[in-house]
Structures are given as structure tokens and as C-alpha cells.
Amino acid sequence: MVVTVDIYKEIRRLRLDGVSQRQIAAQLHISRNTVKKYWDGDAVSWERKEYNREASVLTPEVISFVRSCLEEDARCRSRKQHHTAKRIYDRLVDEHGFTGGETTVRRLVRQLKEKTQEPFVPLAFPAGDAMQIDWGEATVYIIRT
User: Fold this and answer.
1) What pTM did the predictor assign?
2) Can you tell me the distance from the alpha carbon of 63 to that of 111, in angstroms, rounded to the nearest whole number?
3) Helices 85-96/60-75 angle, 10° precision
4) Exposure winner among 39, 48, 90, 144, fewest CB in 10 A?
5) Per-residue confidence of the chain (145 residues) as pLDDT tens digits?
6) Cα–Cα distances in angstroms (integers) from residue 23 to residues 5, 34, 82, 121, in the given order
7) How far, in Å, CA of 19 to CA of 27, rounded?
8) How far is residue 140 from each of residues 56, 116, 137, 145, measured CA to CA in Å?
9) 141 CB-side CA count, 13 A
């Protein structure tokens, strides 16, 4: 199997050599639509489009239910009792008649679980202005030879 970047380069090379789109598609065993897309330079094979469609099934009730499941997990100490995205999806279907897909719920759970990094300011002092002490206890044996 030829790597996609190689297909893109080959299409562009064959175009410069004067080969038609149909001939390129037949020669590389790919769709003429793909050849046309790369031929025109409208798309490049190594870039993926960002998914940005809003799911219509994510109503405020669904979002609040998912949040309540995650908050319940935060209060619960047992890792084995935590909700997985699959379990939340199953509960939504059973309890609320959810009609959306499991990947929609997985994406929502991932967004809600994303942790924001706490900002911090590193402290820097001139030598001798401040000190840090770590308290501890140790037994030291001094051996004289």
C-alpha cells in the first residue's frame, strides 16, 4: 500500500507530465474524485480537518446528567465504581431515551473531564534572602578510622 503523501506527490508529478486524471486514477488504483482533489490542490493528504460540528442531541438535560455522574465519581473514593463513558451512555439510553451516538457522549465526557492546569508563579530570591527547610529525621553513624 502506498502512503498517502506518496500518492499526493505522484499525482502532482503525473499531472506535470501531462497524464489525464482518468489515467492517473487507473494507474494508482484510486478514485477519480481523490485525483481531482489533489490535482486542484484543494486538499493535502497530511492535514486533517478539525471536527467542529455541535451535536444536536446534547441538550442541557443530557449535559447536566453527565456532569452529575462525573461529580458523583469525584465524591466516590472507589475507582471500580466510577462511571465510564460507555456506562454513562448506557444509562442515558436506558433512563432518558437518549438517541445520540456513543462517540458523542465520549467526546462530551472528555471535554468535561479536561483539567485546567493551575497557574503558578515560580519564586526566586537572591541568595541569603530566603531559605527552605525540609524537616525529617535520620540516624547518622560516624565511623573514625
Assistant:
1) 0.47
2) 11
3) 130
4) 144
5) 345 778 888 888 898 899 999 999 999 998 898 888 888 777 766 666 676 777 788 888 999 999 999 888 888 777 777 888 999 999 999 999 998 899 999 999 998 888 766 777 777 888 888 877 778 888 888 888 7
6) 19, 13, 56, 62
7) 10
8) 68, 44, 10, 16
9) 2
Three-class DSSP labels, 42-110: CCCCCCCCCCCCCCCCCCHHHHHHHHHHHHHHHHCCCHHHCCCHHHHHHHHHHHHCCCCCHHHHHHHHH
